[in-house]
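Whether sequence alone determines local backbone shape is best considered at the level of individual chains. When preparing material for the folding task, we compiled for one chain both its residues and its backbone structure tokens. The sequence in question and its structure tokens are set out directly beneath this paragraph.
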Amino acid sequence: MTDADTGAAAAVKSPAGTADHLARFFLDTHIEYEPDRIQWPVLAADERTRLIGLPFWQEAVNTESVTSRKVMAAAQLESDAQLRKAIELQGFEENRHARLLAALTARYRIPIQTPPPFQPRSAENDFLLAGFGECFDSFFAFGLIAIASESGYFTPRLVEIFEPVVQEEARHILFFVNWVKYRRSQLPWWKRPAYRARCGWLILKQVASRVKPARTLGGDNSAEGSADNFTLSAHKDLGSNLTLHALLGRCLAESDRRMAPYDPRLLRPRLVPNVARLLYWLLPASPRWGRHRRRGSSV
């Protein structure tokens, strides 16, 4: 039985939707690993060149570092002791992701700068903004890690090292969307519309921040576009010729697979998968520019 299976079984004992149900799910599915003890594989020259050439390492380190601080700050606002412990654990895991990335970049001599100091504003808004951002990024990360594994772009050992990180992100967004639902349920009825509106505004901010990098999926290969919100454009850097249609299909399948082990009574992330599912059905399986190119090709 996996840790996820054990956590699902334990969480089922608690009434659905309660603080205890949500906290027990998250605490019981935590896995232990220590980034400082990871045995990094020796890479051939071409493998290291591919790794260094990926443009998102700085963005990834910055994101994980800032997110861990936002989560830790938000934990202090939680009145329920078990939920507070769960949010603190998420902060620990986010920091562990940052440490793992720091260890990887140091091991393979990938140049990155120290992340800028985090300037907190509103602890709850910061937590909400980070959580909605993870819902976008993790959805694409699920598909991208599978693509990287199958294409051989990353060595099997690197994929193995990052596997628990990606699964933790699935737990994080699952916990987050259920925490948002729980938090809203604890408010007086007359405050709930404003809370929904605030969440909607923060989601729109995350969407707006991803409009420019999302355009790189359609052919904008500028360095500026590829550096922000790395998961939206990383499929090109991973050496794959996937269309956006195929990429979305893979992300949807991997998202379902990542969520499957957990208590089915927990609310699943819906916004990003639903938008992706709509685009998947609307977009052609092959890009139009590809057909035009073949038509005018002399081959």
User: Anything to note?
Assistant: Confidence is low (pLDDT under 50) at residues 217-228, 288-299. The radius of gyration is 20 Å. Residues 125 and 171 are 20 Å apart (CA to CA).
